[in-house]
Design brief:
By secondary structure, the chain is α/β, with parallel strands linked by helices. The protein has 14 helices and 10 strands. The N and C termini lie close together (11 Å).
Length: 312
């Protein structure tokens, strides 16, 4: 079987995530310690015993989810897993940074600092209330794109996350996204709902954030990852450090092409995917994209041990 590891994006966070990994595996605890040191604060305290609203703040959720994902990777490694066993890795939005850190292209400290800046920059790019996102359920990407284009009417409105064949997230100016919700229902969407997010991610309104990330990424060393990383904006594997740097900038305003990314992994022979870190949303998406791919979540000590027992 050919294995890929995938890493979750924003929305997977929950208070207490990763604490059992840190308690069971010293190397997992060391990841949280490294992130705390990199950020100059105890983000781990926020993750494990803070309130949900504080953890959900974009600037906290992004490095917190990366820390939890990398803690799970270290737990796997402590049980004897070698990342070179994976044929490729990928991550959803911020999860791409987790994938890059897991593959050795970024240090955990650099990934934490970049994600803290990314979260702040994305939050500050658009005044609160001006932007919005909505999930369109039951429309494919082409239909969702058509709805977004008709709803724009001079505003920004675009398909931002192509998650699976029946779930597309749109992003842009609030009034345009609200128009798109109405149009989507008329177009036959099973549901079209506004999302409780703080900014309109992955659209042209994030241009200022992309510029800030370009400056920060220019100051960071990116190594060749030990396995190919499937990039969000191209849905294709990449290993060249300078291309990775450019694609991470493009990712801020570009669409997350998750459906195509999973399809590409399947075409390249991947038949098993482990979702590493918090939550299980990506596993559901994978099953809706290609039911021939087996999935498992790896986010607790029991799941780590089960993965190693069945994967040997």
């Amino acid at each position: 079987m050919a294995l890929a590891l995938v890493f979750p994006g924003q929305g997977a966070q929950s208070v207490g995530m990763g604490r059992d990994l840190a308690e069971a595996y010293p190397d997992a605890r060391a990841v949280f310690d490294e992130v705390d040191e990199a950020l100059g604060e105890s983000l781990s305290a926020t993750i494990w015993s803070g309130d949900a609203d504080t953890l959900t703040l974009t600037a906290n959720a992004q490095p917190a989810l990366m820390a939890t994902s990398l803690a799970a990777v270290r737990a796997l490694e402590a049980e004897g897993f070698d990342l070179s066993r994976a044929a490729m890795v990928a991550g959803h939005s911020l999860g791409e940074y987790s994938a890059l850190a897991a593959a050795g292209a970024l240090t955990v400290s650099d990934a934490a600092r970049l994600l803290r800046l990314r979260g702040k920059a994305m939050q500050e790019a658009v005044p609160v209330g001006e932007g919005a996102m909505a999930a369109l359920l039951g429309l494919d990407f082409a239909a969702a794109t058509d709805v977004a284009e008709r709803a724009a009417q001079g505003d920004v409105c675009r398909a931002a996350n192509d998650n699976d064949p029946s779930q597309v997230v749109i992003s842009g100016h609030r009034q345009a996204v609200e128009r798109a919700v109405d149009l989507a229902k008329e177009a036959g969407a099973k549901r079209a709902v506004m999302l409780p997010v703080s900014a309109p991610f992955h659209c042209d309104l994030m241009q200022h954030a992309a510029e800030r990330m370009a400056g920060a990424l220019n100051e960071v060393r990116i190594a060749v990852p030990c396995v190919p990383v499937v990039a969000n904006v191209t849905a294709a594997p990449v290993q060249d450090p300078e291309e990775i740097r450019r694609l991470l900038v493009d990712q801020v305003t570009g669409a997350v092409r998750w459906r195509e990314s999973v399809a590409r992994m399947a075409a390249d022979g991947i038949d098993e995917i482990w979702e590493v870190g918090a939550g299980k949303a990506l596993s559901g998406m994978v099953r809706r994209i290609d039911r021939s791919i087996s999935t498992r979540t790896v986010g607790t000590p029991d799941e780590v041990r089960a993965a190693m027992e069945t994967g040997e």
